[in-house]
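Input for the complex:
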Amino acid sequence: MIESVLFYTFAALALVSAVVVIAQKSPFYSAFGLIVVLCSLSGIFAVLGSPFIAVIQLVVYAGAIMVLFLFVLMLLNVQRETDDVGGSAPLRLAAAALASAFAAQVAAVIARARIVSGPEQYEASTRKVAELLFSPAFLYVFEATSILILAALVGAIVLAKRDL
Amino acid sequence: MDALLRLFSLIPGWDQNVPAWASISLAGLLAAGLCLGFISLGPVGYVYVERKLAGFMQDRLGPMRVGPWGLLQTIADTIKLLFKEAIFPAAVNRPLFVVAPCLVVIGAFMGFAVLPFSPTWQGTDLDVGAFYVIAIGSLSTVGLIMAGWASNNKYALFGAMRSAAQIVSYEIPAVMSLIVVVMIAGSLSLQQIVAAQAGGLHNWFLWKFFPLNVIAFLVFFTATLAECNRTPFDIPEAESELVAGFHTEYSGFFFAMFFLAEYTEMFVASAMVSVLFLGGFAAPLPVLQTVAGFDIGPVWLIAKAWALVFVHMWLRWTLPRLRVDQLMHVAWKVLLPIALFLIVVIGGLLTAPATAGGFPWDPWFGWPLTALLCGYLMLTALRAWRWHARQVREAVA
Amino acid sequence: MPPTLSSADFLTSWSAVLLYFVAAVGFVAGGLIFWWVIRPSRITAEKLTTYECGEEPIGGAWVQFNVRFYVFALVFLVFDVEAVFLLPWAVVFRELGAIAFLEGLFFIAVLAIGLAYVWRKGDLAWVRLDDRVSP
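Predicted:
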């Protein structure tokens, strides 16, 4: 019962702040809104019984990626959006089409979803996650991840070399 | 919280009449209240001690006017701060300007939820405890950037950016040396990390794989020092160049909140160092763990943390400030390679059956080295004190 | 039987975190309200200027920042992700034996190459050599 209340509280918080992210004109408000979204997602993970994922969510997304976003905002010196929203008529038409396509997609997912009353019981402790991650099934994927991270690092450095 | 729940069930009829959710909520809020009291009274003591220490080290008297030996100085300062007006400069972004100090304080405090003061005196023994503390610490970076940006003040923003860059840089060596401890303990739960160090001073992780873990300890301690923005890593609030860094525009209680957060972070970081390397609430001798049947684990943890807080203060008045390029050099080119090297070497030693439980000489180094260190420190303190007393005598004569 | 917190049930193990958060928010809000009640307010125009050691501030503070901050944040992010992968490895590698250790070793080696690359390119220095040479 309390789990459900918490779940819906976090979910509502995530949705509301996601709307703030889009609706705000100041990029910094959007960024801080996004941090609230990510923290609520972390709360959802905790409620669903995955403490390790919840903490990763905080460390990697709210802690690292958002700091990177904020630094990029500082670097690019992004100003407040001006009020002339909308743009040309074809652009608006395209936006409307994309939005309705997205809405249809979401509706399809929700219609087909299997609604469960509460979180199913399963154990996702750090140990369980680790044992799965380092089992032979995921060995290759895990090592491939390190190559991917290396590639990301090299790419980031090369991009930063360009004059901004 | 467990301890409080047990206390509650001692009350006759409590378990029958009070629902579980109510007693858990009550215990949690009570425990949090205790910790909040501890962190809000703490700075009154820390600031006084720090100012007295600074005075002693610089051959001055420190605060002397308010109360005997200036004992009431910080209380007077607190009252003064509370009666200051709130200044919101015209250029600030008001909502974020208010939210930022709250975020920083709450972020600094949340670490208390998992600090183990004894097997039962702990908010909660999370399965990911050590990682959780790191995660909460990384959130306060966001609060700092928010404070700097909302202030719309050049000093504040520069201080915040420097601070964020510094905290994120030192977070990596901190996590890497945390991994060394996790490898040895085989768990992220702080309770189990302490349990793995039980049985006396020679079992503390500081003395495991001597001298490798001593290096890991130094890496972790340096990294936490930098994450607290303390000298020699205090360029974010370098008084001589940035006025006060990210809290330049804050007045009154807001300013006090940043101070509270700084000292809370200092305590939490020191307590984490004690838990990971110095046995946490475990006494140096198992005999000293209980006094008259009571577990005095909290006393040991707080004593160890305070000893490390003292080292923070001591370093502050001893070392000059690092330049920003030196700072990044230390984090990325010194501490990080050392920590990675330690992970590989200690991982290898743990995998080899002969050394899985530590080096054979591990038990022999802890006590003599601790005794030597303590003796040397006491001798130095004594000599400094006598020199200070002679100076005072000569000044009077 | 008193309710204990040692069970694997999530609500019991995370309830303390939630309650601590609630208490901290209450503490901060209470402090701010108390301060709001007792503090004086005698605002003048001079007090509302941005502090710049007595000079009139020229322009806002929201200026473009050095690209170095961005580079360090990126490198930090990469190593943070690495640490996130290494933590579960550190928890279990002893039980899984030598294979798991070698697995982790390979992972660390690849990232050490990354560190060496960034180091060699001079991006771990706050003042890069070519920054200094070019005007």
